[in-house]
Design the sequence.
């Protein structure tokens, strides 16, 4: 079977998507998993967060989509490692935004990522995909490749409304895929002191039921501090609230995968 592939996606920005991909990846690795995190967002926020600046790199995720069929060596070129980082990482690049044009005539272009991942699934326990915020060939590749889509949802009304776009995309894909796309929602950036946030969280649980993780990610300024230092929160303070909550989320995901 190999790695479980987790796509972190939301078509609304600013909801904790990149923070979730990086911090959950670190939490799963700290609990003993072999983890790969891929930045598939042309904005490259995850890459810049970890100080992998695309303009300084010879190979990025962009090259995966242009590799010759059967080129297993492309993974060795694009996977990056650094001291203190507990997972392997594939940086993104602004040129990922060109794939709509680059691949317009390519057959089975929605399967490129899943076919490429098949060559490295046995190296890892988990692969996390930080998805782009817009519908297109990249997001479709990520959703098709995934075993589970994690949808971070900030507990405010506009963020909740925004997930309708992603659900529409998933419904369209489910009409043509041999197996439905599995998804679960994750409440993020939650302020338990605010009655509006508590109300949105209740609404999420009422509407989505078991498709909402028990774990809730509350506001924690240490996420901002970690980003400013080019690190994940565990490198800064493994005992801060945000770190503990993502550790709990990792345990919840592992227990889901084992049931």
Sequence:
């Amino acid at each position: 079977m190999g790695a479980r592939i987790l796509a972190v996606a939301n078509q609304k920005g600013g909801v904790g998507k990149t923070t979730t991909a990086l911090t959950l990846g670190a939490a799963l690795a700290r609990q003993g998993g072999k983890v790969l995190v891929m930045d598939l967002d042309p904005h490259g926020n995850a890459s810049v967060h970890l100080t992998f600046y695309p303009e300084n790199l010879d190979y990025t995720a962009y090259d995966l989509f242009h590799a010759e069929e059967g080129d297993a060596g492309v993974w060795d070129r694009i996977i990056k490692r650094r001291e203190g980082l507990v997972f392997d990482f594939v940086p993104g690049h602004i040129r990922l935004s060109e794939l709509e044009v680059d691949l317009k005539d390519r057959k089975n272009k929605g399967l490129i990522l899943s076919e490429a991942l098949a060559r490295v699934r046995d190296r890892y326990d988990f692969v996390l995909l930080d998805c782009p915020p817009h519908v297109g060939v990249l997001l479709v590749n990520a959703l098709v490749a995934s075993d589970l889509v994690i949808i971070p949802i900030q507990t405010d009304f506009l963020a909740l409304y925004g997930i309708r776009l992603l659900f529409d995309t998933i419904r369209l894909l489910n009409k043509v895929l041999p197996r439905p796309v599995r998804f679960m929602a994750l409440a993020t950036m939650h302020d338990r002191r605010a009655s509006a946030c508590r109300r949105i969280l209740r609404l999420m649980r009422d509407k989505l039921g078991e498709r909402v993780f028990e774990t809730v990610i509350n506001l924690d300024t240490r996420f901002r501090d970690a980003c400013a230092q080019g690190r994940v929160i565990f490198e800064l303070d493994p005992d801060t609230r945000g770190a503990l909550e993502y550790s709990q989320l990792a345990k919840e995901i592992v227990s889901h995968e084992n049931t």
Observations:
- The CA atoms of residues 5 and 127 lie 5 Å apart.
- The chain has a mean pLDDT of 91.
